[in-house]
Design brief:
It is a single chain. The chain is an alpha+beta fold. It has two domains: 163 residues, 3-layer Sandwich (Rieske Iron-sulfur Protein), CATH 2.102.10; 184 residues, Naphthalene 1,2-dioxygenase Alpha Subunit, Chain A, domain 1 (Alpha-Beta Complex). It contains seven helices and 19 strands. The strands form four sheets. Strands 11, 12, 13, 14, 15, 16, 17, 18 and 19 form a nine-stranded antiparallel beta sheet that branches. It has a four-stranded antiparallel beta sheet with strand order 5-6-7-8, with no helix packed on it. A three-stranded antiparallel beta sheet has the order 1-10-9, with no helix packed on it. The longest helix is centred in the C-terminal third of the chain and has 19 residues. It starts with 8 loop residues before the first strand and ends in a 6-residue tail after the last strand. It binds FE2/S2 (inorganic) cluster and fe (ii) ion. The site of fe (ii) ion has 5 residues, from loops.
Length: 376
């Protein structure tokens, strides 16, 4: 479960998308349902009912903020505990739990910890720009048909700027680079990842990249007396699909409602990357020895080492010890392809068996201005 991406915190979606309806997402191959309890607090469960594996996200939220399975109406609280089993007043609810995931709402984003049924051993690592009220935050989301590791490496890569981004952030460098120019990359390990600085022919452009394990990059753009930071999270979704969460954060011109412009520029830069990254073969990054590398690849090689040493074989098992063998098998056999849930929701809705508000699919459209650090 969450194979290759287990026991880590990742943002998964903007918080404003989670309202009164269950929200179904695929994270690292696992279907997850998010909903809000009666106090408005975000909750996350594996999107499979412990009874017969049905997608809980097809259900509804009751008046007490519990999610009701669409099949037989079992209800579950934010901690996964079963609170009601219709027609079975003698049922031992404490043995019938759904599987909860640690969830937080921070910086306008929803975060989950990719290990079911546990307490997270630490909190997500956040730069001040993601939580301080001094900053405004603009969020945009894209869906790439690429393995998240290729997307992540692209975000840590400097020498592609004057090629892929010749019309945007790489324009200046393209003008001054010569055929014998030399880029030097400095990688400094940090507690949660590493810092990347670069010079070209001895000139430091002043920008700094920060990698935060497992899947985030922050670009600090040098503007005297001001703080402008771009964040990207490469979130593994279904196989070879990545949800790209792009944030622009700044502590100046806070009153300027320029979200659409910020997002447009961010999105334009990311689209330039997308076309290139999606063409990579194999889809997932291979071990370092399988591709040729040079000195300016140091940050991506550092990421590759982390990925192969730590993350690639990671796994998490749900704690279903209280279920009987038959129920366990049923839960584990559950369909995990997100499209099937979408089709089921569409069918139910078409037949009038599911309210229009009964299920929400991820489309990543739109842009949201967030000026507070959320509920988390
Ligand atoms: S109550 Fe969920 S499958 Fe029966
Ligand atoms: Fe790029």
């Amino acid at each position: 479960m969450f194979h290759g991406f287990a026991q880590v915190w990742t943002p998964v979606e903007r918080a404003a998308r989670l309202r009164r309806r269950p929200l179904s997402l695929v994270v690292a191959g696992e279907r997850v349902v998010l909903f809000r309890d009666e106090a408005g607090q975000a909750a996350a469960l594996l999107d499979r009912c412990p009874h017969r594996g049905v997608a809980l996200s097809l259900g509804q939220i009751d008046g007490q903020g519990r999610i009701e399975c669409p099949f037989h109406g079992w209800r579950f609280g934010r901690d996964g505990r079963c609170t009601h089993v219709p027609f079975n007043p003698q049922a031992r609810c404490e043995t019938l739990s759904a599987t909860a995931l640690p969830v937080r709402e921070l910086g306008g984003l929803l975060w989950i910890y990719t290990a079911p049924g546990v307490q997270a051993p630490h909190e997500p690592v956040l730069d001040e720009s993601l939580h301080s009220p001094d900053f405004v935050r603009f969020i945009a989301i894209q869906h790439w048909r690429a393995h998240w590791t290729r997307a992540m490496e692209n975000m840590l890569d400097m020498p592609h700027l004057p090629f892929v981004h010749r019309t945007t952030i790489g324009r200046d460098l393209r003008k001054r680079m010569r055929s014998d120019s030399q880029m030097r990359i400095e990688w400094t390990p940090s507690e949660h990842g590493g810092q990347i600085r670069s010079t070209v022919d001895g000139i430091d452009g002043g920008a700094q990249l920060d990698f935060t394990r497992p899947n985030r990059m922050m670009l600090t753009i040098p503007i005297p007396g001001k703080r402008l930071r771009l964040h990207v999270a490469c979130v593994p979704a279904a196989e070879n699909e990545t949800r790209m969460i792009l944030l622009t954060t700044r502590d100046f011109l806070r009153w300027l409602p320029s979200g659409p412009i910020d997002n447009w520029l961010n999105a334009r830069i990311a689209l330039q990357d997308q076309a290139i990254v999606e063409s990579s073969q194999p889809a997932e990054i291979p071990p370092p020895a399988n591709e040729r590398s040079v000195a300016t690849d140091k940050p991506t090689l550092q990421f590759r080492k982390y990925y192969f040493d730590t993350l690639r074989n990671s796994d998490a098992q749900p704690r279903l010890v209280r279920l009987g063998k038959r129920a366990l098998a049923s839960a584990l056999d559950a369909e995990s392809e997100d499209g099937r849930v979408a089709d089921a929701a569409a069918r139910l809705r078409r037949d009038g068996d599911l309210p229009q508000a009964g299920h929400e699919q991820v489309d990543g459209a739109g842009a949201v201005l967030t000026t507070s650090s959320g509920r988390g």
